[in-house]
Write the structure tokens for this entry.
Amino acid sequence: MTDPVVSSGNDPQTVTASHQMGPEAVAVPAARSQWRDVWDQFRTHKGALIGAFVFLGICLFVAIGPWFWPLDPTETNMRARNEGMSWAHPMGTDRLGRDTFARVMAGGRISMAVGLVAMLLSLFLGTLIGVLAGYFKRLDGPLMRLTDMFLALPILPLLLVLVVLFREPLSAAFGIETGIFVLMVTAIGITSWMQTARIVRGDVLALKEREFILAARSIGTPPRRIITRHMLPNVLSPIMVSATLGIATAIITESTLSFLGLGFPPDFPTWGRLLFDAVSFLQSYPMRAVWPGLMISLVVLSINYVGDGLRDALDPRIRGR
Amino acid sequence: MTRPLVEVRDLKMHFPIHAGLLRRQIGAVRAVDGVSFDIREGETLGLVGESGCGKSTCGRAVLRLYDITDGEIVIDGKAIGHEDQNSLRHVRPTMQMVFQDPQASLNPRMTVARIISEPLDEHTKMSGAEKRARVLELMDKVGLNPTFASRYPHEFSGGQRQRIGIARALALNPKFIVCDEPIAALDVSIQAQVVNLLEELQDELGLTYLFISHDLSMVRHIADRVAVMYLGKIAELAPRDDLYAQPLHPYTQALLSAVPEPDPAQSDNQGERIVLRGDVPSPANPPDGCNFCTRCPAVMDVCRRIDPDFREVTPGRYVACHLYDPEHGGTAPEQTGGANPGTAQARTGTYPSTQQGGNP
């Protein structure tokens, strides 16, 4: 059976991509690609366009920046401690003489990777559990009680236990950096899916009573394809909102963990660690906290705008207005 | 007489009511409570009744969109009353549905072409080009401009959306279509268009309709036979002309007397309007005996005790009322009108059909 809509179900863009594919093949006169419509609508959203530009800029900055910057983020230089901004050190240096610019770039890699991957994981879990709980009545009770249980768990002690239990085995298995990365992402992912699950469940419950779902059932569409074809595209908006908020939360949670000494080891710079290292010197060297803080804020803000624009662009009812 | 395409026997659809701390079942809403009817091939059966009497539930239950409580449904020789939803998939192409609210019955995020080709995706192995050709053919058939194929439902008017819904229902060449108040959400000029489209399609494709509506004049126009529902049961089922000329059940009489007359000066039933007192009893707690006994103008003692059987009183006419049951002192109605009421009568004229007076 040909079915263009088989997707993993976690990534909103994938869902829409497959769902938008059909019309190109069908339209009679000069079929416009659906993605062109999406792009046209996205372009009209000034904030989204600027947000996308800033976000891509930051991605490039942290991804390829370190190749062009000669200074090593972990190299100490005791003669250049606590310096202010200069051409040699655009963002100054810290109390061990490490170049903040290099550290912000290196930290951004880890922070953004953790943020994105943890967001995807929590989005996947949240959407999966929300859809299952909303669509299948028998699963609703158990899954929502599980969600309540996770919400009721004190997150920090749970993370503590997770880190203590799995840090060594994971570091041994994947190497220290990847091991901690996997641990961080999983820990953040499995402790932050609950809001998404609740929102998605609520929307699915409402959608399930709509007549087009009944129409799909009267056609004989099996539940799995009702979910991928009719449910997911229609719960896209709340998922997008959760996604944009999720990245911010993930970056901040990672910072908290690093601050508590549970995250990456101290010599691995992340934005959160840079921020918290700088907090104790806030009065003498305020700029040292401003730079990583600025980066986190910019990333979160730009993603929020991009998410907003994408949500509008992907909704055919708003598009073209 | 053609064979029945759809046979429904003693169909019951009860929705459980849960309440209390433990969510125990404390009762059931008897939305459909023992309904039996046949629909012959190529015929239109009108199903009328007031809001909440179980018309839509009945239509959906016949298509097995619900897991029915009891009874049997045979469509095209296949008993589907108790099949599970998975094995029903193979029967679905013979039976389709047109929905009441054309806005709500179309997925707002799918283009028209995707909506119409969904049944093809599910049940055929057509290639993309074949599907596209079929979609365009269907759009043409229901009177939609094929250049609209890549538009979204919100870009259409109500009547056009309903045409999309009809095209989707036709995609798999069904034999039987349940029209669940397909015109209720449309304004009058569009109603006529959509009904005429349904009639044309019926003539062209030999479709069989279960036409659910609360619009009595529209049902008079499109239906061959009419079933009147009250509180989950069929009160009366008769060929259209007989029913409108001489309604037997007191409820049908009251219902028909409420149909507005286009020209009150010419109508000869001035002042004969039967006004029912009181409210419809709750389907969760129907009265003992006849469901209509609380409001019936001709109520007898027996009505409050014994539920009347759904009996054939003259050939082709079924009534559930003690007034026509000799056992309880009722009289068989004299046979008037329709010399051969059993056969489906050919429809004549197009909407709006003029009413010829002739109420009781």
In short: Residues 188-205 of chain B form the longest helix (18 residues).
